[in-house]
Amino acid sequence: MNFKGRDVISIKDFSKDEILHILKVAEKMVPIARSDEKSKMLDGYIMASLFFEPSTRTRLSFEAAMKRLGGNVIGFAQPGTTSIQKGETLADTIRTAESYCDVIVMRHPKEGSARMAAEFAEVPIINGGDGAGHHPTQCLLDLFTIWKEKGKIEGKKVALLGDLKYGRTVHSLAYALALFGVDMVFISPPELQMPKEVVEECKEMGVNIEVKSTLEDIGDIDVLYVTRIQKERFPDPEEYKKVAGSYRIDLHTLKNVKEDMIIMHPLPRVDEISPDVDATKHAAYFRQTFNGVPVRMALLALVLGVVK
Ligand code: CP
Question: Is 232 touching ligand 1 by the criterion CB < 6 Å?
């Protein structure tokens, strides 16, 4: 298994064995991510963090991951302060950034932009989210969270709830869970259903898929994965208004769930999980957020060839 020099564009670029290998490397990174151990593993390496779209978790956890391993970070979070303002193309920005660094992490609003950047760059490109396309590192940290919280991924029943149409994390996650043979329930307002091709692909991979429009009968669910309605991706603001606030997890929702059912959310949340759920044993979303650091440490160390 060789990750050195590889781009991370889509979860589909990785086999199940490769995903499990990344999770095992991430597990070893946890004490360093918690600052219980110190590391100089990436001393002398530079990561360029190019964020053309807002982010809190992805950008900060990548930067924390690089720094926890002794590496350095350059980049921008506001493209308005760069020569993109003067009309520089993405291709030229990538060619420039790669001459200053060893690996590029990029978030961009345009679907396909990460794959395009990878065609121009010699250094590895890690996709931090490309429009409604892919968010592979989120997918890996989601899998890591289920693996850590539940002991294994196989055989669990997962419900994906919310904006399954525009939410890029759930498209990647549905595919990855199907790879692990996980049966899923897709719950969303009718306007925000999982794209048919994703449903069909999962079924073809041999897993059972239920499609529902209401949050009922979740008593057999092991993981409830909640997503925000992606307001910024609606072509028509009126369409957003029709579905805004159409589902919400609160203490009442949790009355008939499994004792050990966990709630995950890629965050940010708006109003789809009531804050009083945070104090319950079901809330796993802030542990999930932390898991972004060891998973991204593992990816950086693997693609830079410092860890095999
Ligand atoms: N989960 C996630 O991608 O969060 P950010 O948009 O804050 O990076």
Answer: no
**DSSP at 235:** S
Residue reference for tokens 């919400």 = 248
Tell me: the pLDDT tens digits for 254-295?
A: 999 999 999 999 999 999 999 999 999 999 999 999 999 999
Question: How far, in Å, are 59, 109, 160 from residue 224 at the CA level?
Answer: 25, 27, 6
Q: Give yes or no: 57 in active site.
A: yes
> Is 189 near ligand 1, meaning CB less than 6 Å away?
no
Question: Closest Cα to residue 198, out of 175, 217, 177?
Answer: 175
pLDDT tens-digit map of 68-115:
999 999 999 999 999 999 999 999 999 999 999 999 999 999 999 999
- Whether residue 108 lies in the annotated active site: no
183-187 and 209-212: which strand pairing?
parallel
SS3 227: coil
Nearest one of 269, 282, 215, 275 to 250, comparing CA atoms: 275
In the three-class reduction of DSSP (H, G, I as helix; E, B as strand; rest coil), residue 26 is classed as helix
Unique residue bearing structure tokens 């994390």: 169
Half-sphere exposure of 99 (CA within 13 A, CB side): 5
How large is the greatest C-alpha to C-alpha distance in the chain, in angstroms? 56
Residue nearest to atom 1 of ligand 1 (CA): 266
Q: Which domains does the chain have, with CATH numbers?
A: 11-134+292-303 (3.40.50.1370), 136-289 (3.40.50.1370)
